[in-house]
Amino acid sequence: MENQSNDKKVFLLDALALIFRAYYALIRNPRITSKGKNTNAQFGFINTLLDLINNQKPTHMAVCFDTQAPTERHTEFTDYKANRQEAPEDLLAAIPDIKKLIRGFNIPVLEVDGYEADDVIGTLSKKGAAAGYEVFMVTPDKDYGQLVDGNIKIYKPGYQGGDAEILGAKEVCEKWNIKEVHQVIDILGLMGDAVDNIPGIAGVGEKTAAKLLAEYGTLENVLENADKIKGALGEKVRNGKNSAILSKKLATIITNVPIEFHEEDFRLKEWNRDLLKEVFIELEFKTVAKRILGEELSIVPGAVPQGVQTDLFGNAVEGKSKAEPKTPKAEVAEETGDTDRAEDGDIVHAGKNIQNTAHQYRTIQEEAAIKNLVKELLEEKEICFDTETTGIDANDVELVGMSFSFKPGEAYYIPCPADQEATRAILKQFEPVFNRKDVLWIGQNLKYDMLVLKWYGYELFGETFDTMLAHYVIEPDGKRSMDMLSARFLGYEPVHIEELIGKKGKNQLNMRDVAIDKISDYAAEDADITLQLKQVLSPLIKSKEVEKVFHEVENPLAKVLMEMEYEGVKVDQDFLHEYSKELEREAAKAEDSVYEQAGVKFNLASPKQLGEVLFEKLKLDPKARKTKTGQYATGEDVLMKLAHENKIVEDILAFRELTKLKSTYVDSLPELINRKTGRVHTSYAQAVAVTGRLSSNNPNLQNIPIRTERGREIRKAFVPRDSNRVLISADYSQIELRIVAGISGDPAMCDAFKKGIDIHTATAAKVYGVEESAVTKEQRYKAKSVNFGIIYGQGAFGLADNLGISRTEAKEIIDNYKKQFAGIDTYMESTKAFARENGYVQTLMGRKRWLRDINSSNFTVRGFAERNAINSPIQGTAADMIKLAMIKVYHEFRKHKFESRMILQVHDELVFDAVKEEVETIKPIILDCMRSALPLPNEVPVEAEIGSGINWLEAH
DNA sequence: GCGCGCACGC
DNA sequence: GACGTACGTGCGCGCA
Questions:
Q1: Which of A118, A150, A314, A661 has its CA 20 to 30 A from that of A137?
Q2: Does the CB of A633 sit below 7 A from strand C?
Q3: Which residues form the 5'-3' exonuclease domain (predicted)?
Q4: Residues of A from 621 to 660 whose C-beta is within 7 A of strand B: which are they?
């Protein structure tokens, strides 16, 4: 389309279709109850219009308004389903506003009674092209049909002009490269439910329909010969006759519309600014009005009003505009006057460009030179330290070199030879430096470097400033590789590691294989950059007011985590081996049973194939849900709904569970056992989860099964390292709810915790207005779900889904909950208000999460931000608390010189590999550390439970 | 190599 | 049918 000159284009907008789409987007979401002015109908229309004007700069345009709105055809459509008959009323309500907008923008209107925009373009295909114009039609999906040589040419979804026939859906899909049948409907300018009716017969899928059409030629022939069609199919065809005819009528484009093409009728004129202003005020489009009218934006490219960069359905439109879109971040900064953002921007420019700055990187190998360096390092107050190693698993690498930097632009690299004795000798010379207590160690992900050192027997005693963690507390979302941080905060792109060792893959080199002078430059630069990053990030830590969580939580924790990773946990290989065989047998049994019942062999592990078998071959559910990629959804929730009627589903679920357990846990764990220690050493990611939680990988020990009988067995494989030890597990009880109670100060909930009443029972008693002793199991279960939902900021919809109850009932429960626990409702509202005001929310330790979308005018985006606003302080405070507890436990253990070790953290649980004689001594210490780590407001008590046993399952 | 669907934890 | 459902990691499939 690029080669089309603008003055040869005419754009047609089907206003009614646009409103229709917006309207359905509205009513499909039950949470949208607003019937106010500022609805999606108007908004969607203006978005599409502005998008078009800004991107395509048409000189000629017309709105094709289906004037008999709803026209005969639209009326028929809404009759398809009785419950949608309310549609036209609201639709009509929006029309006057749309008309005002059209007048404001001074767009020519084509009013042709009783015809669709489709018909108009169909007709113009015969008449308009002669005038030398290309006619484009903007459909609700913003796909274009182009008029070429009197025919409408289809780009992406489009429609066939002229005397359009209804094609078999399959044929249409093939012809226009469309995956989903419902898109055909969009193409034809119709809406949703007619999906089932292409070619108009309910219950006849596209494949069957195509077959029928191929056999009889036309739809009319199919219907005429309906009696000859055998069985259920014939029945369906006969029953669906009327809707088939209607479908065809709906989709047929009329090409004899009484309209003539006159160039001047389509030419765009000046906007009527006064009228626009009036309409915008009326519709409360304040932001749009300000941007369109307050500034000279008009239709100049590069001046796309950012406030309307969402599509018809309220989704953010990315990269559609030729103008460089501002990031949402920038937008927030602008709207809230967030000076910190501006500060960030300044830093990029204020930062030194290392490339242009004289630097001195030196490789230190001679003993005398090392002595000199050590002497110097003993004097410095702050030292940046970095290691180069042979791999990324710190528990299984050799040191290749170390770099130090203490002055920007200067750095030293000390190569360490493959001969480990020689490397040890070099390290020995640095021992006094490592042992310094009066030094601040600076590094990027120091946990890694400390772990490498630990394997060589050294420890860093000084305090630490980890640039990765600094960035984590400054900006918990977003990426933070060193290259990225350098580019962003120093304005410099460092040498990328792939330039040394090649792209990742089987041919990637080992650091050991790279020439020393090459590594030296790279490694020294890393230390230099990290040092400079510290200078930049340090003031940001202060200005963002996150010193507390940074200095008191994250930095000290890194060392604790390092030690836990170093210790590892022993797994019982024999047990897993046996269990693997058992799982294998059972999985095979379930698999065979599925094939037998399905009557066909396929790959059961493939959701795609399974979906086809279940819903096409076995036809278990004629209304099977599909995923966004067009596959049948076969998730657990979907299958469970079919479970009571079909034994095959049971077997499928069993197969899923068994193979999941086998592949993810039983068979993988032994492969991650470290050769040196015979244990698995997980790695904790300290700067990944936006809420402040840790995450665990290689292996992930935070998702070991516990829910099901068979899954739970796996916990038996986690054992103490020798027979003189046991495992201890200590976990917080209802910690997140206690935090909710504490920070909201809700008297009812605080009281329940203070009295030590089971919180879900207490909740049920309140919500259902009964005595605690009279609460039924079901009431407690429902109350538990509500409590759970509160923590996640979930609404009635999610609750209903979770409990399998109606949304009405869910809403009732929630309303009652809010009444009984008014403090919680207030907390949720005030948290959202705080977020709107400040652009962030925070935990008790001052850990912040910035919510740039909290003031978004898009309800979906804003809703997401609002849920985060509620959830993050809760989840984050729980994360702060256990992190503080871990630091406390670690220091207590060191102080008492216990040999027992903390080895795992699973969000609200700590696991210890404990020496038997110490068990009774350390249990109260652990509990005390956990309870006192972070006292909650309003005297809400913090409780923890503890147990021990010969494996993790028993300890729990 | 990557996106997706699915499933495990808290 | 499409919209949404806290925070994570990892597996196998299917496609490029």
A1: A314
A2: no
A3: 8-269
A4: 627-629, 631-636, 638-639, 653, 656-657, 660
CATH code of residue A733: 3.30.70.370
**pLDDT for position A101:** 83
Torsional sign, CA A524, A530, A535, A536: positive
- The SS3 call for residue A140 is coil
Interatomic distance A600 CA / B8 C1' (Å): 30
**Paired tokens of A355:** 């490339």
Across chain A, which has 956 residues, the per-10-residue mean pLDDT values are 48 67 48 43 66 63 62 35 38 71 85 69 63 60 32 28 30 39 33 34 55 65 75 70 60 70 81 81 67 46 28 28 28 30 31 56 95 97 96 92 96 96 97 97 96 97 96 88 86 80 75 90 94 95 95 96 96 93 92 90 88 86 79 84 82 90 92 92 92 92 91 94 96 94 94 93 92 91 86 72 76 87 90 91 94 80 86 93 96 97 95 97 97 96 95 93
Residue A505 CB closer than 7 angstroms to strand B? yes
Question: CA A711 to CA A565: how far, in whole Å?
Answer: 24
User: Do both A156 and A65 map to the same domain?
Assistant: yes
User: What is the secondary structure of A570-622 as a DSSP string?
Assistant: EE-HHHHHHHHHHHHHHHHHHHHHHHHHHTS---TT-HHHHHHIIIIIS-S-T
Nearest DNA or RNA nucleotide to A639 (CA to C1'): B6
Q: Let me know whether A553 and A579 are in one domain.
A: no
Range of the domain at A660: 571-673
Query: Last residue of some domain: A568, A583, A608?
Result: A568
SS (H, E, C) A29-68: CCCCCCCCCCCHHHHHHHHHHHHHHHHHCCCEEEEEECCC
Domain with A614 in it: what CATH number? 1.20.1060.10
| Residue A689 CA distance to nucleotide C8 C1' (Å) | 7
Q: Which nucleotide is nearest to A191 (CA to C1')?
A: C1
The answer to whether residues A185 and A108 belong to one domain is no
